[in-house]
TrEMBL record:
Signal peptide: none annotated. Pfam families: PH. GO terms for biological process: endosome organization; receptor recycling; retrograde transport, endosome to Golgi. This is PH domain-containing protein. Keywords: Phosphoprotein. Residues 1-54 form the PH domain. It comes from Microcebus murinus (Gray mouse lemur). One of its GO terms (cellular component) is early endosome. InterPro entries: Boi1/Boi2-like, PH-like_dom_sf, PH_domain. Gene3D superfamilies: Pleckstrin-homology domain (PH domain)/Phosphotyrosine-binding domain (PTB) (2.30.29.30).
Length: 54
């Protein structure tokens, strides 16, 4: 599953669009879809996460 989501970066730039990829239980993000070949900016193993609605 792949999609653009907004990620909080900092108070100066606020929410920024990022390309997110969920693959084999790992959620990774990139600056854009074109940057996937450069490697992720960060990733999270979803199996060890607790997700809550706010």
């Amino acid at each position: 599953m792949e999609e653009v989501l907004y990620k909080w970066t900092n108070y100066l730039t606020g929410w920024q669009p990022r390309w997110f990829v969920l693959d084999n239980g790992i959620l990774s993000y990139y600056d854009s879809q074109d940057d996937v070949c450069k490697g992720s900016k960060g990733s999270v193993k979803m199996a060890v996460c607790e997700i809550k609605s706010v």
